Amino acid sequence: MVKKMKQNIIVRKPSDLTVTWAQRVVDKHHDDIVVTSADVVSIDIGTTTRVRITIEHNGPDTLARRWFVKLPSMAWRARMITTLPRLLQTEVRFYKDVAQSVPLVMPTCLAAQSRFGMGSTLVLADVAEFGAIPSCPSDTLTVEQAALVIEQLAYFHARFWNKVDVGSTYRWLAGPVRRLEDRLGTALAVPLMKRGLRLAGSCIPSTLHAAAIHFARHRRKAMSFLSEAPQTLIHHDCHPGNLFWNRFQPGFLDWQLVRIGDGVGDVAYFLSTALDPETRRLHEASLLAKYVQTLADNGVVGMDNTVLMQRYCAHLTYAFEAMVITLAVGGLMNLHGNLELIRRTAAAVDDLDAFAALPI
Question: Residue 203 sits in which domain range?
Answer without folding.
Answer: 133-357
